[in-house]
Amino acid sequence: MTRATRFNNQGIWRSSVALCALLLCVWSADVQAAPPADPAIKTKANFSIHVITAVKGDAPKIDPRLAKMARDLKPFQGQYNQFSLVVTRVLSLAVNEHGQVDLPGSKHFKIKMLNFVQSRARRIRYQVQMPHTKMTRSVAPGGRTLDATHNGSALTIVSTTVR
Questions:
Q1: Are residues 48 and 29 located together in one domain of the fold?
Q2: Radius of gyration of the chain from its Cα atoms, rounded to whole angstroms
Q3: What pTM value is reported for the model?
């Protein structure tokens, strides 16, 4: 083997190693750029809806099933002192699905799942509709919102928890 042939074989070998290294870098960058398939990404959200009736009574009374929510009901305790749980319902909604819960007095609480919002913390956007109001909310899982409407002398409070 002459010196020129050996030099040429080494050049071919080096260029093939360099080409393989380049392809490996491009392939690994492409794999890293692709978002991983996350099995934890949900397509549905669960909404736990509690309908509560508040009235002004002789003595303060809170339904024992509302013990965990007593702190959330504080803003209403100035005018109302008796709180009772009327109904609890869990709705599992996909994007653009509607759900409805009947309220006292032939009224309805409607909820529509809009979408998932990816930010620092994952949030769920949904729209609620009560008599005379329509609101859009963005809440993190575990978040709770309260909506209230008058029903004669009583107050109907709807607590929505996103799970």
A1: no
A2: 30
A3: 0.70
